[in-house]
Write a structure and sequence with these properties.
Keywords: Monooxygenase, Oxidoreductase. By secondary structure, the protein is an alpha/beta fold. About 45% of the residues lie in helices and about 15% in strands. Helix 1 packs parallel to helix 11, helix 3 packs across helix 5 and helix 6 packs parallel to helix 7.
């Protein structure tokens, strides 16, 4: 049985977006600038509904509008009151860990202590050639940069040396955090080494469950708990990031999402050698055991509850943007998530 990290009332429900390039009402592609403004509007709605977290992804390709999540989050911080703000994810491998810390400690200041960061390697590789990094160092870059970030997060003088950048001796990294610490998750797609690495630094674990069956991730959460114990470190939150869409009914949600989800899947699939997605595969992924959280508020709440209990989660983040799915459909999905799904999930968890 999975550990449960938190009481049901503490369970967090968040949203993630990559700022997918959407279509305008006339079917024309929206400019990236408008998509970014739409994301700010989506976050403001999420805050007004009392949702717990809003995460913005980082990409460097033409199907996503956001390459600088912290800038978008700073704009959101100025228009929101309560919601926690973070990345989904920050591609640490192709960034400078000290600059990442500075940007998010600055976001923490302007948002009155609401900043978080989710560190990952990213599932796309465009940032490596863009910033002049060698993809053959994929593992080494992340390992070293996470180590340096973890040092900066302690907010003392940083002394560090590695192979991927010049050494540091007693360097201070500013600004310091008002609250004393920055919540930093490590995003993991599916490798046991990554789970153990998150545990080694005592950082919370964010599982990206974007395909297959969520319950197949139970061995990872067990490994994480065991690893934390072996390192002599306290329990940490576990979160899940999964794609989904909410409609008034299951059928409406499925029909609304299908064409946009399929087009996005097939576009990325062309780069990666995947066969085109069939409707039967989509239906299976959207079924009770699949990773796609799509349907009516009742269906979605039941699915989130099942995964939360099985994996002992503290947070569930719904990745609500999908390719060209329109801004209006996303706003409706967010509204249903905040007004209906969130209370249902909390009630379900209270019942045990």
């Amino acid at each position: 049985m999975a550990h449960s990290n938190h009481e049901p009332d503490d369970f967090e429900l968040g949203l993630d977006t990559f700022g997918d390039m959407t279509l305008a009402v006339d079917g024309q592609a929206k400019p990236a600038a408008q998509v970014i403004r739409d994301v700010v509007e989506q976050a403001v709605l999420a805050d007004s509904l009392g949702l717990d977290y809003f995460g913005v992804g980082e990409h460097h390709r033409d199907d996503f509008a956001i390459s600088a999540p912290d800038m978008v989050l700073a704009a959101i911080a100025g228009q929101t009151q309560r919601i926690r703000l973070g990345s989904a994810v920050t591609v640490l491998s192709s960034d400078d860990p000290l600059r990442v810390f500075q940007r998010f400690s600055t976001l923490d200041a302007v948002s009155n202590g609401r900043a978080e960061v989710t560190l990952g390697r990213g599932s796309f590789t465009e940032s490596f050639p863009l910033f002049g990094l060698d993809l053959s160092q994929y593992e080494e870059l992340f390992e070293e940069k996470l180590e340096l970030f973890a040092e900066a997060r302690k907010q003392g003088p940083v002394t560090w040396s590695g192979k991927t950048r010049p050494a540091l001796a007693d360097q201070m990294v500013y600004p310091h955090l008002e609250s004393g610490t920055l919540k930093a998750w490590v995003a993991v797609g599916g490798s046991p080494q990554s789970v153990v690495r998150a545990a080694r630094y005592g950082l919370p674990l964010m599982l990206a469950i974007i395909g297959g069956e969520p319950l197949q991730f139970a061995p990872f959460t067990d490994l994480y708990h065991r690893a934390l114990k072996e390192f002599g470190l306290p329990e940490q939150p576990i979160g899940v990031h999964s794609p989904g869409h909410i409609g008034e009914t299951d059928e409406q949600a499925m029909e609304e999402l299908w064409p946009h989800y399929a087009a996005m899947h097939n576009r990325i699939g062309r780069d990666r050698g995947w066969p085109p997605l069939t409707r039967a595969q989509f239906n299976a992924t959207a079924g009770p055991d699949g990773a796609l959280v799509v349907g009516s508020p009742q269906t979605v709440a039941a699915k989130i509850t099942r995964v939360a209990k099985a994996l002992g989660l503290s947070r569930f983040d719904l990745k609500y943007s999908h390719g060209t799915l329109p801004h209006t459909a996303m706003l409706r999905s967010i509204e249903l998530y905040g007004t209906q799904v969130a209370p249902l999930v909390r009630a379900n968890l209270r019942q045990g």
